[in-house]
Amino acid sequence: MSVETQKETLGFQTEVKQLLHLMIHSLYSNKEIFLRELISNASDAVDKLRFEALSKPELLEGGAELKIRVSFDKDAKTVTLEDNGIGMSREDAITHLGTIAKSGTADFMKNLSGDQKKDSHLIGQFGVGFYSAFIVADKVEVFSRRAGLAGSEGVHWSSKGEGEFEIATIDKADRGTRIVLHLKDGEDEFADGWRLRNIVKKYSDHIALPIELPKEQAAAEGEETPAQEWEVVNRASALWTRPRTEVKDEEYQEFYKHIAHDYENPLSWSHNKVEGKLEYSSLLYVPARAPFDLYQREAPKGLKLYVQRVFVMDQAESFLPLYLRFIKGVVDSNDLSLNVSREILQKDPIIDSMKSALTKRVLDMLEKLAKNEPEQYKGFWKNFGQVMKEGPAEDFANKEKIAGLLRFASTHGDDGEQVVSLAEYLARAKEGQDKIYYLTGETYAQVKNSPHLEVFRKKGIEVLLLTDRIDEWLMSYLSEFDGKTFVDVARGDLDLGNLDSEEEKKEAEEVAKAKEGLVERIKAALGEAVSEVRVSHRLTDSPAILAIGEQDLGMQMRQILEASGQKVPDSKPIFEFNPTHPLIEKLDGEQGEERFGDLAHILFDQAALAAGDSLKDPAAYVSRLNKLLVELSV
Ligand code: ADP
Ligand code: MG
Fold it and tell me: What Gene Ontology terms describe where this protein resides (cellular component) (predicted)?
């Protein structure tokens, strides 16, 4: 035992304590994954060393094959993992093994319900990592030294997983990390060669460097124990370099968990090798679930970049557009230089053409998923639909393709679920319908009952119902799909084109003519509040409605801009009334100008309320309405 100096006891960050608790109590049915996590970390550590050694070969400290060793001691009930990767300094150990650096972790932890079943799903969004060692161990010791530091600058970290850990400086001759798990009572089954070998095969076969276990050897009685021999138990070749046909689904899945630090299987993947002017391999995955930090600006995104099989960087963001930031995977290029930097990636024209090819691969993969596994695609859309909606604005070239992947709620569904594709919408459109109709609003309940839909309901025309915050903005980038233009049914002068018969059009014209006088009277009464007053063709049940001017900002956009402190140009709505509604007939017959004005204002305010807008002067509305009510009751 080497000398320990500078001994300290430190507390875990609160989030670590919570995670440890959750892990120990919710992952007991799949304990063996601790080995996968520790091997995954060792492999990352070796990748980092290989990369840093490109510019500082002395870090390799004389060579030695890079590898991971897993051993055990049945009597002491320990399992030990050793790697000769990058290692950790004392500070590294304190931060990496005592805190969780991901932004938003505290918020995430607040969402834990205490219900172990539910929480164990949440852990999937988080990834389990190093702390999973405590599922099987009641004491974990880490001995490490960072490559490049002196042999006297090793670190010994140890913890019982109960809120604190001890840290000391030690001598460690070899660079890298050794982790000793002291197994809990009842977990001795893991101190077994056969068991460990099976777990490694099952979860870590894809790891690209050798994982060695002690060779099973029987010492004959009376003989001296033979020197320890080791044997490689995994395939130890980079998975993406193998031909597609030779890789099993389980291998793809385990590889995903390793690179994505995810606990669940992916929904889908696409593995390709490109040869020709550019040469690269890519393996791209669609996760099954959104990570908790999908909307955090600093959240990890991008692919793992390798150059000729050598790991170069994590989170290389230049290979996919932002709206596909949830995609995980690996790209291995033969054309880039090993000392490529993020800055170079941003400018390199090679990257641009790789980016557009990879983007297309992802969109194709999603199209396939939508077509072949519609149920899974529903799940995908629930998790990532909001992010996909950023697509048309960001990626002009693929606008049509992205539009085809969008899913909407519609008047033809009854629960507000976003399941209708544009292709489906068009396939069941009315004969002669050459537009895609939609309505935006705050909530599904509000748009579903909007008076703007009355004429569509009457004619059985489907309208898409858009209530996500991003929707109005999205629609400002989508003008058409499959040659059909989008029409906001709350905007401008609704023209149903071929969907109105000649008779209907003629009748509408006649009514408009007959009501010219009423239009003028209302205009005079409402004055500055409206930009225009006209007879409506879109109402069957409601007396009046407010339409947005063709060029004006919609309510959602206005609210978003206002919330961000921007000055929003004032726009006045168009007041449309339903000439056959009894209230309007009453208004038409009203002789008293004051009463006419009150009634017109009430109708105007009600139309605003029905559209989900707030009133400019609610008190005036209430007092006018009350005045009418009093008159009614006498
Ligand atoms: P993740 O792998 O997602 O980063 P982990 O909880 O698995 O999270 O590991 C936490 C961190 O601890 C790693 O990011 C790494 O910095 C450090 N670490 C863990 N194991 C090793 C190791 N064998 N060698 C070097 N560093 C390690
Ligand atoms: Mg890890």
Answer: cytoplasm
Distance in angstroms (rounded) separating the CA atoms of residues 422 and 481: 8
CA of 128 to the centre of ligand 2 (A): 7
Q: Whose CA is nearest to atom 12 of ligand 1?
A: 96
Q: Which fold has domain 5-232?
A: Heat Shock Protein 90 (3.30.565)
| CA 260 – ligand 2 centroid, Å | 9
Pocket test for ligand 1, best of 100, 130, 292 (most atoms within 8 A of CB): 130
- Buried-exposed string 538-550: b where 16+ CB fall within 10 A, e elsewhere: bbbebbbbbbbee
Residue matched to tokens 């994590």: 314
Domain ranges of the chain: 5-232, 239-381, 404-498, 502-633
Angle at 598 (CA atoms; ends 594, 601), nearest 5 degrees: 135
Question: Would the pLDDT of 122 be above 90?
Answer: no
CA of 395 to the centre of ligand 2 (A): 33
Q: Which ligand is nearest to the CA of 85?
A: 1
Helical spans, DSSP H, in 373-438: 374-388, 391-394, 399-405, 422-427
Please give the Cα distance from 578 to 495 (Å, whole number): 16
Q: From residue 35, how far is each of 30, 49, 129, 259 by CA, in Å?
A: 11, 21, 10, 15
Task: Quote the ligand 2 centre to 257 CA distance (angstroms).
Answer: 10
Burial class (CB in 10 A: 0-12, 13-18, 19+), 230: middle
CATH class of 239-381: alpha beta
Q: Could you identify the atom of ligand 1 that is nearest to the CA of residue 176?
A: 24
Cα 63 to the center of its chain, rounded Å: 41
Classified by CATH at the fold level, domain 404-498 comes out as Rossmann fold (3.40.50)
Asked if domains 239-381 and 502-633 share a fold, the reply is: no
Using the atom order of ligand 1, give the atom closest to the CA of residue 38. Answer: 20
Banded pLDDT at 279 (limits 50, 70, 90)? very high
Rounded Cα gap, residues 590 and 607, in angstroms: 20
376 vs 104, residue with greater confidence: 376
pLDDT band at 222 (very low <50, low <70, confident <90, very high): low
Please list every protein residue whose CB sits less than 6 Å from any atom of ligand 1.
37, 41-42, 45, 83, 85-88, 96-97, 127, 129-130, 177, 261
Nearest ligand 1 atom to alpha carbon 131: 6
What is the share, in percent, of the chain residues with pLDDT greater than 70?
Answer: 97
Residue 568 has pLDDT above 90, yes or no: no
Measured in whole angstroms, the distance separating CA 430 from the mean position of its chain's CA atoms is: 35
Cα 325 to ligand 1 centroid, rounded to whole Å: 23
Please give the CATH superfamily to which domain 502-633 belongs: Heat shock protein 90, C-terminal domain (1.20.120.790)
Kindly state the percentage of the chain with pLDDT values over 90.
69
Checking if the pLDDT of 219 tops 70, the result is: no
